[in-house]
Amino acid sequence: MDDVACDAGALSETVVFLGHFKDLPDGRQSAKVRYPLDEVLLLCLVAVIAGAETITDIARFGDRKLDLLRRFRPFLEGVPSHDHLGDILASLDAEHFQRCFVAWVASLTGAPEGVVAIDGKTVRRSKGSRNAEEPIHMVSAFAARQRLVLGQVKVADKANEILAIPKLLDMLAIEGAIVTIDAMGCQRTIAQKVLDKKADYIFALKGNQGTLRDDVELFAAEQKARNFKDATVSRASTVDGNHGRIETRDITVIHDVDWLQKSHQWPGLKSVVMVQSTREVAGKIERETRFYITSLVLVANLIGPLIRDHWAVENSLHWVLDMVFRDDACRLRTDHAPANFTTIKHMALNLIRRAPGKDSLRLKRKVAAWDDEFLVSVISR
To answer: What gap in Å lies between CA 188 and CA 203, rounded to an integer?
Structure first.
């Protein structure tokens, strides 16, 4: 076993992510710890990359891949049982774990470029019995251009996103980025927080801001009827079509908003955006008008793609977690375990995305399970 420990020590520097979790508090009594925390975290991450979906999967992976794990750490006592593993994940402080995650991602990416989309997702099976607490809700920040999770915060339910978003922003280094949030996060305090972080914002505007949306909608309707002759605007159009669907988007940016600021005093507000979409599917036509407020001073053909980039958080994060990582099927319910396991999935997703090759995420996970050297290359990045 001494040779094993020596070899692991020689190779441990290749597991870069562990250095960012070395200060993560471990509430276990040190004299009784059989499984060091760095070994537990390494086991969980490697197993999830290779396709593990449950705590039982992770424990079984550890039993079968102990030789591989010992290339990085000694694992003198082997790996914990699934019950013990679940207890360890439940005991780790989720907020501290998330802060370690943010520091690790920042070391990989530096300051994010372009859109940072913030949105929440409920882990549906994390609710226990009928009278138990509600399923956990994770609010995540997603770098649309790099397609990487930047950070996440656990909240009790969707209604608490307003409280969680400032905490998430406090953790992130986003100078120069553009933060996009749906209508729930359209709050003055959040807008000011984004500006304080030296970033810009684009917020969807709905009815949760009193008369703000009504005033914007009325002004836009009046000006459209006059062909915007009394307002400084820029306009652009896009047409997309696939799978029998054709969608046309007409984007209008209203650049003079002094009239709006006099009534509403919104932090950093520079422009209002109106997006009118027409969607044709199987001969049926649907029309929708959406409004946004932004601190940016950009013309329509530049701001339109930024608004569309927000949906990367749905398509490239939430959908992937459900369809590739089976997140909604996860039944972890104890203490911090659901939030910590979601963070580990985010870590795995980031590493798989950074792995070279054109295979799908699903196939990369399969290859990681089949090919130890590929798996080693993924976690060594």
So the answer is: 11
Please check whether residue 366 lies inside any domain of the structure. yes
Beta carbons within 10 angstroms of residue 80's beta carbon? 20
220 within domain boundaries: no
The three-state secondary structure class of 23 is coil
Domain residue limits at 339: 2-92+335-379
Report angle CA 105, 101, 53 to the nearest 5 degrees: 105
* Interval 273-320: pLDDT, tens: 999 999 888 778 999 999 999 999 999 999 999 999 999 999 999 999
Paired tokens of 69: 């794990």
- Residues 169, 145 contacting (CB under 8 angstroms): no
Structure tokens at 3: 């040779």
Percent of the chain with pLDDT over 70: 92
The pLDDT tens digits of the residues spanning 136-170 come to: 888 999 999 999 999 999 887 666 788 899 999 99
Structurally, the chain folds into a number of domains equal to 1
What is the pTM for the complete model shown?
Answer: 0.89
Under a CB-based contact definition with an 8 Å cutoff, are residues 330 and 54 in contact?
Answer: yes
How would you classify residue 121: left for phi > 0, otherwise alpha for psi between -120 and 50, otherwise beta?
Answer: beta
Distance of CA 183 to the CA centre of its chain: 17
Give a yes or no: residue 62 inside a domain: yes
Q: Residue 129 above 50 pLDDT? A: no
Would the pLDDT of 5 be above 60?
no
Is 141 a domain residue? no
Neighbours of 74 (CB within 10 A): 18
**Structure-block tokens of residue 96:** 């501290």
Q: What is the mean pLDDT of residues 100-122?
A: 90
Furthest C-alpha separation in the chain: 82
Mean pLDDT, residues 256-284 = 91
Distance in angstroms (rounded) separating the CA atoms of residues 45 and 17: 10
- Residue type present at position 278: T
Instruction: In whole angstroms, give the CA distance from residue 26 to residue 21.
Output: 11
Q: How many Cα atoms are found within 13 Å in the side-chain-facing hemisphere of 211? A: 8
Residues in the chain: 381
